[in-house]
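tool=predict chain=A
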Amino acid sequence: IRFPALKARARERIDEVAARRGLTPERLADRLVPDFGLEPDGTLVLDYGSRRFIAGFDEQLRPYVADENGKQRRTLPKPGAKDDPEKAEAAYQRFAGLRKDVRMVADDQVHRLETAMVARRGWSPAEFRDLFVAHPLTWHITRRLVWLAEDGDGLTARTTAFRIAEDRSFADLADDPVELPAAAAVRIAHPL
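tool=predict ok
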């Protein structure tokens, strides 16, 4: 937001909403990431009438497009003469808007995850699954990170490093399955 007064007022309102829900502003922000109407797998079907394309995102939230046969394309083609004019134009504009919106959200999400890593902010396994693994957009970013499941305190504490596999399960360094203990705190592993 360009206007400092508006930005300050927005921050106050966000803090008020978070407090009413019993959340910190960061935890509220975790719950407010839009899904942009994406399918659960993080893709979007763009229907041109005579042709259909699948749009999705990589782990950097850069968009990609594939045709119905799965062949990757450099860009989404402009509507052609054989396409349904209304459907094709709507799909083309939808993709253009989606790219722009996701670009804005992506920067914010990366920054929020970096802040969470540095602050050692954690989530319960249920929150982690709902907010990061099952979310059609954030899972693209979170699957490229190394996560820690920290269970217990003091001498009995156990920390397990894991990643999110392509099928959204959890795997350790040896690619063996990992089950998250219900009482664990899930955190982003710090490089240091």
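The longest strand covers residues 158-164. The CA atoms of residues 118 and 192 lie 10 Å apart.
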